[in-house]
Please model this.
Amino acid sequence: MLGDKRTKSARPALPTLPEPGQVVEVRGSTWAVANVQAQGLPRSPADESTAGLSHVIDLQSLDEDRLGEQLSVVWELEVGHTISPPQGLPDVIYAEAFDDPTTLAGFVDAMRWGAVTSADPNRYQAPFWSGVNVEAYQLEPLRRALGAPRTNLLLADDVGLGKTIEAGLVIQELFLRHRARTAVIVCPPSLALKWQDEMREKFGLDFTIVNSDLMAQVRRTHGLHANPFQLFPRVIVSMAWLPQVRAQRLLRDVYAQATNPKTGKRFAFDILVVDEAHHVAPSSPSAAGGRGYAVDTQRTVAVRQLADKCEHRLFLSATPHNGHPESFTALMEMIDPRRFSRGALLDSKALKDVTVRRLKTELSGKGFKKRTVSALDFTPSDGEQESFALLDDIVTKSAKQNGTKPTGDIVTMLLKKRFLSSPFAFGMTLSHYLSSKAARGLSEDDYDDVFGEGQADEEEGLWEQDEAERLRESKGSDPLVAADPGQLESLMEWGLSYESRADSRLDRLIGFLDAVCRPDGKTWSNERVVIFTEYAHTVDWLTRVLRQRGYVEERLSVIQGSTKPEDREYIRSQFTADPAKEPVRVLLATDAAGEGIDLQTHCHRLVNFDIPFNPSRLEQRIGRIDRYGQSEEPQVFHFVPVAGASTYAADMDFMSRIARKIAQVQYDLGSANQVVGEEIQRHFARRTPTKAKAKGVDTNEVINAALAGGMELNSRLTQLEQGYDASRTEMHLDPANLRRVVDTALRINHQSLLVPNHEFAQDTDGEVFELPTLTSGWHDTVRGLDTRLNPGVQRPITFDADAAKGRDDLVYVHLGHPIVQKAQRLLRRSLWSVDSPLNRVTAVVVDDMEESFVAAVTRMVLVGRGGIRLHEEVFLAGVRVKGRRAMAEEKAEAALDKALDREGLALAQPQVRDQLCDLWNVPNAPLRVRLEESMRARADRRHDLVLEQLAKRQDADTQRAHEIFAAFRTNLRDSLAALKAAEDEAQGQLFADPDQQRQWRRDVEAMTRRLEELDDEEAREIGAITDRYADVKPHTTAAAVVFALTRDDAEGWVE
Model:
């Protein structure tokens, strides 16, 4: 009996159970209680004398670095949790416990900046959380994204308009509004580092590059079964790695957790961004001998599977249409499967809704210079003309002897294309061709590899890559039978003889480079030139000869497929740095390696050493210098032979005319690949390709109309751009406040404060600071303060955007910068924590104020079902210290802004604070009661207003979803009817190629299935919208009390 008593008395009391809406501290973080549920089974009586129920507590994070995160815990088993006291007004205040007003103002600013709304689609927040100078046109994708329940966009802006910035703004806004937490960026391998740098430097967002190297590292640190897609919320994956077995196995595990759409979690990731999205469209079919049908590649399948598991999708490409409608509709289906289906008819209205495309020519007043296109004339040598004439004779006669079929054209074009790039590339190609064995032979579909439409981003003409593989395979179907013994060997030796010497074109190039880069033959100017070629062998040859002619390593840089991403970014940094500091003057690059690289700083000249058959590649080249931020007139050069009657001169001249037309934007974007392909085929094969004319609506015309551009700049965006400074003021985002928040956070975290750099600041109009030595907890925030050219050397920082404009030796620390984010998190967490260093009360004397007042800085959070934070705002409730009327909200806010947004704030004297305590601390103090009433009344009004906004948003989202599904239903029915009619007319065999026929059949079956499932899908979509806005609960807390006193009142109390 005694033992029982002892046990009973020793048993600890059960922890107090929280209620929904309360704030709790669990596992070192702050959470709002969303739900409390008793478990069905009682705890074991072996543990307690009386069996009791456990409780599962659903929590939603209130920490800024864990946006939207949810956690469920068994409350009775959780260790070290606390329930934060109700955050109302304090009952008692103490004169000696008033906070320093500057410190409290820093806390209030941090809280105010973290308050983000999802209720108002027109209140953009991302521009202020970025370090970019946002143009009005770059906000259009953001406007579209926020106006829809789900973001599905094709950003098809002209090359160089800043699609990366547009995507970053959308990503940032979705994160801020708690509509997304995880993101996946898929891009060409060469752009992964660029994306990582841009997201961190411009938006303060850390992304992890997932590849084989990271996999090895993760396995060492987290075990063999660790999955980086589950470890890191924001990741970057290369298009080349994504379809591989290892990546697919890891993703299957993640997909498995995105359960049946009818229940539970619907998506594996929140946001998907695909850069250079034309690479993931199905490969283009043959353009020869009639109509073909685009077939899915491994890359297409992998990206489609990933897109299906992502809620929001942004695809980026300046050249998204390769001229084949089913390839384009496949791309659009990945972007928005509720509007598009592969192979279906295109709904022009849906396409316009989803596509954002603007051309540089439409953006007047944005500083875009009109590009000039000039010819570099050269005189081909006799040897060059004779060798080309011999090649032409061999391929032409061989094609006739082989039966004059379209595959003979492919051999002609492949060999001539190499010859027109460089004699050395041609010699290397023939060398490989002669030593290879005959293979399967060519089919008409292999035109794709000549025109480069389906080329992988790493394709640059190497023998193991697709284009060369086609040539190898041609030995089986189209051998060069007309060549006399030794002729091919002779041509090969002629080409290889140029290994270390220039041909006539290279001599002309060297003359041009010398005139630009060292006009007196000795002294290097500050001018730079970038040279593009399609083939790695041509780059190697150009490098060797230019080195011999004085373009030593420090003056000439090279980027090609074999260049490591880190080296590529280092070279880019050198080439875009001030020429007075970095000696490099010429950059050689292949198309594959140069894609997506920005070279407009300190370079406005580009030379096309050869002309790719694919117009998109040529436009991508020019876009490296003709882009936002280019201060000079972009100059584009290509080679034109001096008039001559030779075949070589004729073919070179033909390609130069193509280049001029593309560079001067004389082709429509969508039709360029097709039209140019036909022109090239007609010229080189000397035949007219037959093409089946589609009946009814021409889908290409629908696509081209949508991609023709069109500036319908929303007036709201223009207003936002014009009122940018006013908005910054309204958000208290002036440099002094940003600095105050960072300094306050450093102080409470026991770090040294920022160190003014007066010497550097002499060159600028803003204040400049050096960061002190910080402890390890801050190390992630300073990444990116050094550069690739000067690793380990931190650049100074400024909080003034204008001071850092156009400078790379000074870092602009903006609201979204990791340093400010870290400071905000520390201050906000401190504000609500049990052991906060703040008492949340201060008093200041303001000289030019009409009357004394006291204000409650109030925070209201609206949380929806499942803990989704729909809205957060900070507002002020103020009452006069003397008198009974509440102050007008605008007047209170203006007065408090005036009180707290000034430097050198001083705490009121002790006698004044004593008087305020006397007024506040009496039981049922009228001052406190009036302030509580004002706070409650204002909270109720704000709550009703936001609920009204949310209801309107729900209605708009629901209506839009109904319209989208209705239009798609009609589109699918019309498409299936049209396809059935086409099949009947062709008697069931539309395409000669069995792969194409199978792909067409799969598409028709997929459309039929989609039509059958559409009603269920619509119901689920409407249900998800309803859930988002259901059970909205407010959490209102008083963050701080501020007494703002007139000078007369303060002096009266002192006396």
